[in-house]
Specification:
alpha+beta; 6-stranded antiparallel β-sheet; Chemotaxis protein chec; 4-stranded antiparallel β-sheet
């Protein structure tokens, strides 16, 4: 066997190379990818979706507070991406599935999305709207046609709230289509279609109910590029929307205020106060037929005359106190 012999310099260079430590290769970072459930909505778009529907939760909660005569809070908990078939198989039966139509002819956008409520929450709303205490049945049952018509106004306010929060991005022109109790009877997307599932938590009178909104990807697809743009430009000051104004008005309307009717006043010394006994008569500063002062949150606002309604004492308002009258009816 013949070959070229190494020179002394080549031998020494080879020995130096053997003595040097070997280079460490960087280990590749492997990230899992689920081909069955690809995430088609990126983080920035999810953040914008979250902000939009957080605003919806606040406005719809305020609207419910006014209608149900109780403080209602609606908080967005999670946004998940899954297939429509997985969503439908997770639905209980009976359920309350509200189908909303999307119709924007200018942008060629049409389709449907669903809002899922527990039957117990719907029955709670019906009971409160009819003046009840809101006692909820332990077992869910189908919602009757009459009960659906009773809560229709609440559903219309929900649709208005969704339209208002989406209008700055694109007008969806959502409208109520139907309410179903059997989830298998509703098919708004192919079984393998990706959906965004927004899960909310409704808190009212120490009770908690879930609410979920299912939006198919074919509806979100033309909206996603606009969501990123909205997230970058939506941080500045903007005019309050109709939903914002109605939310503030609803909170004001549901605020409680104290009303007091004062029969009259008098002054007495400390000695006279200590000497008071049962049967003593105090002479007030009002004559028998003088109108009474009506105070709202400690400030006189009306004059009225006493009366009676059935077995309850009452007062009839006969005059509203204006600014020019306040110095006359001041507590000073």
């Amino acid at each position: 066997m013949s070959g070229k012999l190494l020179s002394q310099d080549e031998i020494e260079s080879l020995l130096e190379t053997i003595g040097k430590p070997k280079l460490k290769l960087r280990k590749a970072v492997v990230q899992p990818f689920d081909f069955k459930h690809p995430d088609r909505i990126v983080k920035d778009q999810l953040r914008s979706l979250h902000n939009i529907h957080e605003q919806f939760g606040r406005s719809f909660g305020t609207s419910l507070s006014s209608s149900l005569r109780a403080m209602v809070e609606i908080n967005l908990v999670t946004i998940n991406q899954l297939t429509y078939s997985e969503y439908t198989t997770s639905l209980a039966e009976p359920t309350c599935l509200i189908v909303l139509n999307v119709n924007n002819e200018e942008e060629d956008l049409s389709g449907s999305l669903t809002v899922e409520m527990e039957p117990q929450f719907v029955l709670f709303c019906v009971d409160r709207l009819l003046g009840g205490t809101g006692d909820v049945l332990a077992e869910p049952r189908d919602i009757t046609i009459i009960e659906q018509s009773i809560i229709r106004r609440l559903l219309e306010s929900m649709v208005t709230g969704l339209n208002e929060v989406w209008d700055p991005t694109m007008e969806l022109n959502l409208s109520y289509e139907t309410m179903a109790t059997n989830p298998q009877s509703v098919q708004i997307a192919p079984a393998g279609e990706t959906i965004a599932l927004l899960s909310f938590r409704i808190s009212v009178m120490d009770r908690h109910f879930p609410l979920r909104i299912c939006i198919p990807y074919y509806i979100l697809e033309p909206l996603l590029p606009l969501l990123v743009h909205r997230g970058r430009t939506g941080s500045g000051n903007k005019e309050p929307t109709l939903v914002d104004q109605e939310a503030v008005l609803a909170r004001v309307n549901s605020s409680l205020m104290s009303i007091e009717v004062r029969l009259g006043r008098t002054r007495v010394s400390v000695g006279g106060l200590l000497a008071l006994e049962k049967g003593d008569v105090l002479v007030l500063d009002r004559r028998l037929h003088d109108p009474l002062e009506v105070f709202i949150n400690g400030e006189v606002k009306f004059l009225g005359v006493p009366g009676k309604i059935k077995r309850h004492r009452a007062v009839k308002l006969i005059h509203q106190i204006g600014r020019e009258d306040k110095f006359i009816y001041s507590d000073d």
